């Protein structure tokens, strides 16, 4: 049975609804409080806390503008996703929409690529978490990476409510910390306390080489880092199958995107770069931790290091959650091993989650072999694979809107404003990011890996299709 067939059968299964289960068999255990925090936390991760250090070194204060423009594009993407979710909320989300509006091959590629994205991101985040641990203790990175992977895997095997609660508190820590940091920086700017009080001024945004100290080119070269910071914001789409009231909760969560970006990215960077000159920061060091150290607030630096540690663990936790769901959607559609369709008694995709967690252990080996370069090795590939999901969301929304406007499909109750023009703009921006990745030696490797991954998927798809001739899983839906 495909996920689409399951979805269509929901109306005929009042027992399933009464039991608190979605049409796909998942427990609807995520409430409004948890969904909102998952949406907020999805925008705050390692890309901001750690990756921003390298981006500041490359672009200076103009990084603020890069985050603002990219944030607008992210909002366009999320509204496009919201329109699709209100048309048909399913756990398969992006791969299901790609399957319906573009074709079964694209659904296959999207599902497996998004799964790979979260496996790679899980490696990235557990690597970052291991780096943060060295702030306090001189312990091997690989050992920390191993312990964190095992703990989060165990937490994801209990229930979706445990995942939701973990994400709620992870996100609460991140939000509280950033708001607190903004307030402290505002106090330094206005009251002049701390070691940075005498030099803290908004003029730091343009005094040291100007707002674009490395030129427009330097700003453009940070776009890959910026877009990586926003990856996972689309995770709310994967929660649709386990949300208690998706048609009410998801639009509210999506509409918080603008102020989340304005406060947590633009606002936080304005404050940090006003208090501490941009030339002070170095790549590989969290600018948030470095800012507190420059202010002479050692305890604050330790607290922020704990916060960025929770941010990394939060993202890895999300990876554990989403990979199992994506593999099960693929299996339900005949595009993955049937073994992945199995659910535990409490509605968890045990086999898919276990398989993904096992692959995330590759991160332990990477941390053992290349502890100094592990983070940079996996960031660029995570970015290109994550952006594929965004591309599929946008193309699916454009095609859905065209069919809905022709009366072939029902209109969504949450239409994306300005679409399809905003969707085309977002696609063009993603194209610019890919181009900048191609001319950057540090990120070009991910584009070398992408054709290899596409070849693997293409061959796998043809093999599956040949083994299942006439299967509806390989026929485009009308």
Which helices and strands, and how do they pair?
Layout: H1 3-8, H2 14-18, H3 32-41, H4 46-49, H5 51-59, H6 63-87, H7 94-101, H8 104-133, H9 141-156, H10 160-191, H11 204-207, H12 215-220, H13 223-230, H14 246-254, H15 257-275, H16 287-294, H17 298-332, H18 350-360, H19 362-369, H20 374-405, H21 421-439, H22 444-467
Tell me the number of strands: 0
Strand-pairing-aware structural class: mainly alpha
Separation of the first and last Cα atoms: 17 Å
Unreliable runs, pLDDT <50, ≥5 residues?
1-19
What's the story with the biggest beta sheet? none
Secondary-structure element order, N to C: HHHHHHHHHHHHHHHHHHHHHH
- The proportion of strand residues reads under 5%
Number of helices: 22
Helicity level: 55-70%
Rounded to an integer in angstroms, the radius of gyration calculated over CA atoms is 22 Å
Task: Estimate the mean pLDDT confidence.
Answer: 81
Q: What spatial form do the alpha-carbon principal axes imply?
A: globular
